[in-house]
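Spend some time on the protein that follows and explain the fold to me:
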Amino acid sequence: MSIVTLIVLYLVTALVFLAADAVMLTKFMRPLFERYIGDWLLDDPRLGAAAAFYLAYVAGVVYLVSRPALIAGDATQALVQGAILGALAYGTYEFTNWATLRNWSVVQVMVDTTWGAVLTGVSAWAGVMVARVFA
């Protein structure tokens, strides 16, 4: 796999992931989280921490999911394995909080874990679909 293909794979995956998550966070997740833990939320998120997460998470998705799917020539593999990885990653955060924090809600757990699966799977799939043009 060429470096150009790998860069395209990362950039497309990141763009889809960031754009979709920005909409979801502002329109749906923030209101949901405000309902249960509103007094815990910052007025302005810590952008450095968010950037570190997004850069590392997308790199992990590309390494563990997208690159193997691209090599196999199977975008559906990226969708399915991305969804599994997303459910595990977002579920780890959500179930840990639900287990340890008084005001955490099962609604937050279900919505965010599902979102993590959909977001990661679709982002990985989109990256593979575009990057295979360069492969």
Q: What stands out?
A: The CA atoms of residues 26 and 108 lie 15 Å apart. The chain has a mean pLDDT of 97. The radius of gyration is 16 Å.
